[in-house]
Amino acid sequence: MTASLTGKRVAFLAADGVEEIEYTEPRKAVEAAGGTAELVSLDTGEIQALNHLDKAGTYQVDKTVRTAKATEYDALVLPGGVANPDFLRADADAVRFVRDFVAAGKPVAAICHAPWTLVEAGVLDGRTVTSWPSLRTDLANAGATWVDEEVFVDDHLITSRKPDDLPAFCKALLEQLA
């Protein structure tokens, strides 16, 4: 039985191109444990999720990253997808939002290609992380040590490689929040 997350708020920062399962599965885990999940994005309206490179569902944005503050949440989830983190890392408000969570010592969970946003936020120097293998050099250039594990927890930073790692990723996220 998972500890209750009643009263906990979790921001899911995502944009068009988010890998659908990397958004929906952690969100379901948070909500099933009694937490509140909010989709934070670059603009109002909906974002277009993908299943690899094919269109998947659309999801209603709860708040824009311009108006969101890390102080309003207990944790941050960064789902992957190739395009999603590329859009996020090019947005100054998104980068600030991520940096604020890390500076506050709040749990930040990033899967697959999502650590690209952590690279841009400049928060990986001296950290150990995992990701989709193609990010290995980018993460090393940002000062991180890359490991090939289904989930790696470095203090409050939780990272995983791919959708197959979602059970371990969600478990680590819930443990950090509980």
TrEMBL record:
<protein>
    <submittedName>
        <fullName>Peptidase C56 PfpI</fullName>
    </submittedName>
</protein>
<dbReference type="InterPro" id="IPR002818">
    <property type="entry name" value="DJ-1/PfpI"/>
</dbReference>
<comment type="similarity">
    <text>Belongs to the peptidase C56 family.</text>
</comment>
<feature type="domain" description="DJ-1/PfpI">
    <location>
        <begin position="8"/>
        <end position="176"/>
    </location>
</feature>
<dbReference type="InterPro" id="IPR029062">
    <property type="entry name" value="Class_I_gatase-like"/>
</dbReference>
<dbReference type="InterPro" id="IPR006286">
    <property type="entry name" value="C56_PfpI-like"/>
</dbReference>
<dbReference type="Pfam" id="PF01965">
    <property type="entry name" value="DJ-1_PfpI"/>
</dbReference>
